[in-house]
Structure prediction request, 504 residues.
Amino acid sequence: MSAPSAPRHVEAFAHAAGSVAVAVPGGATGWRGALLTIHIASAASYEMEELAEAHCVAGRGIEGDRYFLGTGTYSPKPDTREVTLIEQEALDALARNDPPLQGGPIQLAPVDHRRNLTVRGVPLNHLVGRRFRVGEVILRGGRLNFPCKYLEELLGQPVYLPLYNRSGLNCGIERGGIIRPGDAIALVD
Amino acid sequence: MSARIVMKLTVVEAVATTPEVLRLTLVHPQRPELPAWEPGAHVDLRLPDGRIRQYSLCGDPADRSRYVLAIKREDAGRGGSLWTHANLVAGAVAHVFHPRNNFGLAIGARRHVLIGGGIGVTPLAAMARRLTASGADFTLHLCARSAEQAPLLSELRTLCGDRMRCWFSSDGGRFDPTSLGAPGAGIHAYACGPQRLTDAVQAALTAAGWPAERVHVEHFAPMADETYKPEPFDALIASTGAVIHVPADASLLEVLRQHGFAMPSSCEIGVCGSCECGYRDGTVIHRDVVLPVAKRQDRMMPCVSRARVKVTLAL
Prediction:
């Protein structure tokens, strides 16, 4: 494994999407969600590993993860990828074939989707340009995640189209700390 | 290669099956079951320096709890097998991609003839296990310099009984592919081993009237190593006849753009598939991880893939 070298991230609120959204008021409020699982992988294509707790480092990522180490598939291209999240509700919808895009249900387990945090009750699509808390950590929504063909090829499952518009959220870490499954997630401002 | 997940597997057993061949048993440290595979499949083993080596799975495809590999020490090779023999001891971690198969058993065949030379017997061992379990009709020809140097010999003897024929050159034995004669109904042949063996099998069976689709030969295609060194090449534009030179330090995509081609792209590291482009003749070195094998004969990803000497692009 290559030695950790500081990867280049685009600060979440400096991202083309986040910089616009941060100046726009409104959005989803009053929700309260929870962190279900945490997964990291040490390098591109490596199997995701589940963690009982994770150390988030501001401006960098989750300790041990490929986008913390600069060894990710997309690490050569600077972007906002310190932490990625996806909604359990989206995975549930795939499992019940909703909408029926691929002619059958798709079981996409938290270990397979390659986002770091699987969350429930969190309206990720409304959190671009917003600050929110996961336990003691504060994240900044930088841009919507977008499905990639690479994941489809890696899994051998047709997940590209079903993940459209519910592929998750790419975040920066404003305040680092320890997170654990079960941590509460809520809007900061 | 197409994209595959890499697993960190634990070596639970490493034993010599011949003086030169190490038999490794690998399990997943957390999951009770490994990804399923079919006989003839191989895995890519990733070495610490990024080199990738391919090894056939030679265990029982019905046993999802473990992968078994047999790796020959090639003292004059490029160093991959030497690293493996020195480092993959019991308790070590092996970085193993999900299996792929370019050498599967023919569906609907009535009889199978398996021909293995030396370490080339490994994919055939998995085939023999499946064919034995399903009660299929098969013969395994095992060619080696001697019984002592024949990989997996004792377990294959137990498994195959009189369905295995051994050809040891130390005893004057030599497998003659012309002895297979004309193709019977529903018969398929599978050869894996040194190229002189697979070439002889293909030549003899072609001469005896075997259709090409009933003669299966395992080829290990070169993989995109992280130690890959780009070479310059020329790209011929099919529509105009223009020849564009691609230097070693530039991508084909960059050079096409410099020449006014508005190529779409996104990741520019061979994973997103945006810049896909057609080609006609030439030997393309595919270095992306997204293009399926079936499309590689006439499609390429110019952000990372290159060509040997010259390629004609469908632009």
Notes: The mean pLDDT of chain B is 91.
